[in-house]
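ok here's Prepilin-type N-terminal cleavage/methylation domain-containing protein, seq below lol
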Amino acid sequence: MKLQRQKGLSLIELLIAMTLGLTILAAAVQMLMASRNSSVVNNELSRMQENARFALDIITDDVRKAGFQMIGASPLQSFLDGPCGSWNPCTLNNSNGDSDRFAVIYEPHIDEPQTDCTGAEVDLNNEESKGMANVYFIEDGSLRCRGYNLDLSTWNGESVNLVDGIDNMQVLYGVVDEVGQWQNSTQYVTANEVDNWTTVNSLRVALLVNGGFASSSRSNEESQFAVFDSGELVFETGENRELYTATIYLENTDFDPKVSNLGPKEQDDEDSESEDD
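and the structure came out like this:
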């Protein structure tokens, strides 16, 4: 009797084939996950850069106008250090990790819309106007602004949300030794340390921006930041964060105008830090 040769795979061959198949499948899944994570990180970075640029552009544009007044009008101070509404002072250096706030004073040009940073109309006495103040601050993770009418000593409506995803804002003021002299001896101090606001020639702003996406893989990770004089800021929310800074030189002072606006690692005297939270 002639025996037929058995056809098919042996158990060992089948196990080897299954192992190879699972290995290839695992590699494909790993590549897919890596591609997804990379896409998420890139989207977060783009979102942070866009929000930071937009926020710094808004602040820079307004700070450049600080102290502007029409010809023949009474000189204006660049920043409001006195009270506005229930806020006393209006320009404030906070402590314990809280964000700073600052109020930019100027008189809108007569040929431009008489509006504040919220877009609301401002009723000013153009002949003897004290100007208006745009107050910038952080609330609920967003950069907000509110207008204050110095002529009427009242708020010009409610605040508006300008940019989301801003965790913290710190501000330093550049002061020089003598008004009218452009020197390299500019020192950057907090609002509490400014003795004479007419000696302020620049503003240095730092914004800590988050990516807006909390990853479960980073939920237990802790990240720490030190933003100017804020002290140690600790986050455990699982979001990427990055620090952006800008130095803005005032144009309506006795000093030569010079403006510098930057993002991370773009100038020698500015720093940017990024960390995964």
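fwiw The chain has a mean pLDDT of 80. kinda neat tbh
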